[in-house]
Amino acid sequence: MPELPEVQTTVSGLKSKVLNRTFVDVWTDTEKLFKNMSFGDFRKEIKNKKIKDIRRRGKNLIFELSEEYFLLVHLKMTGHFLYDECPPAGGQGQEDSMNRFIRARFFLDNDKVLALSDLRKFAKIELLKKEELDKELELLGPEPLEKDFTFEKFKKVLKKGKIKQILMNQNIFVGVGNIYADEILWQAEVHPEKNVLDLSEKELKKIYLATKDILLEALKFGGTSTSDYRNIEGGRGTFEKKLKAYQRQGQKCFRCGTIIKRKKIAQRGTHFCPTCQKL
Questions:
Q1: How many CB atoms are closer than 10 A to CB 34?
Q2: How far apart, in whole angstroms, are the C-alpha atoms of residue 165 and residue 16?
Q3: How far apart (Å, rounded) are the C-alpha atoms in residues 200 and 121?
Q4: CATH of 151-272, one of 1.10.10.10, 3.30.10.20, 1.20.120.450, 1.10.8.50
Q5: Looking at the domain covering 4-137, what would its CATH class be?
Q6: Do 10 and 231 contact (CB within 8 A), yes or no?
Q7: What are the residue boundaries of the structural domains of the chain, listed by start?
Q8: Alpha carbon distance 43, 226 (integer Å)
Q9: pTM for this prediction
Q10: If DSSP codes are grouped into helix, strand and coil, which group holds residue 219?
Q11: Is 47 within 8 Å of 137 (Cβ atoms)?
């Protein structure tokens, strides 16, 4: 699932390509993606709406449109946008099978296409007014990369429970999923099953700093493409080359040499070093 670095990379790419463009039409073969109105109504309403701004809130993409409308898109497990649908001849994403599951095409006034590729068909697309958008997003926690997300605020929003589950809870703070939770806890040397109430001040500080470090570093490398995420050019993020825990089961820990283990925690595959991250 695209997490904060992947969604922010998508936002940056889209802003460079489609800002101030106008939707002229839309096509889909998967009407269930459109959640708050019928596809027929969506198609009618989206026409002639101009893209004034694009931003991210948690793992959500938000297109601010003309006439006080907002296009809210959650990419869910396997969704990603492609600009002009197919990368240029010889482009890095042209032969990538993950770019071939086109479920929706948004036709723009420059004769280009903004396409949504989604293998699992779980993405969510909604056209909303401001009050509807606010209601959709009201339960989301704070943004971990904002300047006002201080260590004190981090401690204040935490709840009891296993630390990995807490890190991935979007109502506590947003943007962290399975990949980055594993990486954050490896860097902080904290076992993913450790209860938040049992963490020391030092451990909490290490988790807080690791959260910012890992997310910023992943952003720098355009996100992680161990599975299906691709940028709007159809290319892969390269942070997977920097992974220290996620999907490294059976390999040596970069810090101590112990073999990385994989265990299911809350139905999610979790990767950790049993020596560096003691329970």
A1: 22
A2: 35
A3: 42
A4: 1.10.8.50
A5: alpha beta
A6: yes
A7: 4-137, 151-272
A8: 34
A9: 0.95
A10: helix
A11: no
CATH topology of 4-137 equal to that of 151-272? no
- Say which amino acid occupies 237: G
Distance CA 159, CA 142 (A): 14
Return the SS3 of 50. strand
89's CB contacts (< 8 A; 6+ apart) are: none
**3-class DSSP assignment, residue 10:** helix
Each residue's pLDDT expressed in tens, for the chain with a length of 279 residues: 899 999 999 999 999 999 999 999 999 999 999 999 999 999 999 999 999 999 999 999 999 999 999 999 999 999 999 998 654 444 445 568 889 999 999 999 999 999 999 999 999 999 999 999 999 999 999 999 999 999 999 999 999 999 999 999 999 999 999 999 999 999 999 999 999 999 999 999 999 999 999 999 999 999 999 889 999 999 999 999 999 999 999 999 999 999 999 999 988 999 999 999 999
Q: Which residue has the tokens 């009618």?
A: 44
CA dihedral 33, 86, 47, 63 (to 10 degrees): 70
**Catalytic machinery residues:** 2-3, 59, 268
- Rounded CA-CA distance 62/258 in Å is 43
Paired with 151 in beta bridges are none
